[in-house]
Amino acid sequence: MPDNPNLAVLERFTGAVMAGDGETVKALCAPGFALHEGSGLSFAGTYGGGEGFMAFFAIFVDALAIERLETVRIYQTDDPDFIVAEMELRATVRETGKPFESSLLERWRFQDGKVAEIKPHYFNAM
Hints:
By secondary structure, the chain is of the alpha+beta class.
């Protein structure tokens, strides 16, 4: 499979998130960007645009004291505008003090070299 330039976009986006660089996150979001967090999570919902993503991330880190959030594998498809990232998450639920571990698959969709959509699927719900 040829090199996919969207891999670099994904890496820049996740690096900016972990560094707290909201301006880069916003710049990498396509018009109409949406993050879809599944029901059953304390941070469930759809978050629009770079501002919405950063609002989600603030809720996420308020809910979880993150010890590890790491991409462990990347799966490419025949369509370069779709990539799946497999991640490992280890955290403590702040409200209960209980440990939480999950793997998750995030389906990323790209448009014109920017992130258009992220749809995470958690193995374990909180």
